[in-house]
Amino acid sequence: MGTHICEELSHAGVDFVAIENNHANHHKLDELGFLYDEGDATHDTTLERVGVKWAKGLVAGLSNDAENVFTTLTAKFLNPKIFVVARAVEFETEPKLLKAGADRVVKPYELGGVRMASLLLRPGVADFIEIVAANRNLDLQIEEIVVKKGSKMDKKSLAQLPIRTEFNTIIVSIQNDEKGIFAYNPTGDTIVDEGNKLIAIGERNNLES
Q1: Tens digit of pLDDT for each residue in 47-92?
Q2: Rounded to a whole number, what is the distance in angstroms from the first to the last CA of the chain?
Q3: Which residues contact residue 109 at a Cβ distance below 8 angstroms, ignoring those fewer than 6 apart?
Q4: Domain of 185?
Q5: Which end of the chain, C or N, has fewer beta carbons within 10 A?
């Protein structure tokens, strides 16, 4: 799992440092050219050494739930603003991770089960989502656009923005974190506000611009 996470971050052009104290995995990381630390992710000194105090995010993807809880707790103590995505193997671990400060919890076995059921029930839909989300060779992707303070999009309706006409991009959803709601398939008169997250689908070069 850790190697796949590193590959996705690398593909996205994100600077990162992996923490891997299992020497059996070091050769693979060396082959891929990824920067890594050989320490223990549950130790304060290791997290401080890799720069957790100024990092934007952390993935706690250890195979042991207790270690992921402790890593999350330590990271949040050192950097309260860091965004933590944590792995949970056991169902009952999720509330513990959230209480420790995790912003998102991923349960691989549950996701795998949902994925397999989707392939059985709606194979076309499942294939499309996977292709758009993960295919690096396809000139189409789903992206998250955050409306920042002072943005030209703030307080304007979708119809007033050149998203569709100029960039050939479709806004499939608008998320309001403060209210905790998603607006699916928003209409042209939907007003965009500062802090909103626009979930867009379009050509890669248009989304990057």
Answers
A1: 999 999 999 999 999 999 999 999 999 999 999 999 999 999 999 9
A2: 31
A3: 89
A4: 139-208
A5: C
